Every structure is written in structure tokens, then in C-alpha cells.
Amino acid sequence: MELIGSLITLFGAIFLFLGALGIFRMPDLYNRMQAGTKATTLGSILFLFGLAIGCYRGLCFWRVLILIIFIIFTNPISSHALARAAHHIGVKLTERSVKDDLKKDSQKGDRK
Q1: How many CB atoms lie within 10 A of CB 25?
Q2: In terms of pLDDT, which residue wins out, 98 or 81?
Q3: Whole-model pTM?
Q4: Which of 37, 62, 67, 79 has its CB surrounded by the most CB atoms within 10 Å?
């Protein structure tokens, strides 16, 4: 069981590294947030799940499960809120961006 937990933790660490690499490599704020959010959400979940499997006490597993559920809900929501706030204050997209779904909302003035 400890070996399986170690391998899952390793995969989580790899995803966390790829998220950091995506933040370094992406051209603008919005792409960096997407790379960081998706990879770090999965990486954190795998990392914590591997730790929970390696832990032999039942209480430790349930605490880690609560942390995983918290990460599943808060990480994407906070990233979405930050991206909308950045768009609202006028952070520019990269020239290679094809579509801006929030542009028509900001032109209408439907900010509520």
C-alpha cells in the first residue's frame, strides 16, 4: 500500500511541476492561470491522495479527503474570479488569442 501511495504522490508532484512549467511558458495572464489552475488542482489532489493512501490511520485519510474536496471547489472558482477581475481592469490578451467571450459583456455594460 505504501508503494501505491508513493507512486500516486509522485504523479501528483509531476503534475505540480508541469503546472509551474506552464506558468513559466504561457504568453499571457489568462493562459498562465489556466495552466496553473488545471495542473495544480489535479497535482494537489493526486499528491494528497497518495499521502492519504500511505497513511495507515483512518482519521488521516478523512482529513485529507476533506482537503481534496476543498481544493476541488475553491481552486477553479478563485481562478475564474481572478480572470474576470483581470479582464475587467483591462489586462490584455496575447495577440495569438482567437476568441474573447467576455468582450461582448464588457461592451454592453452588463457588469452587475
Answers
A1: 10
A2: 81
A3: 0.78
A4: 37
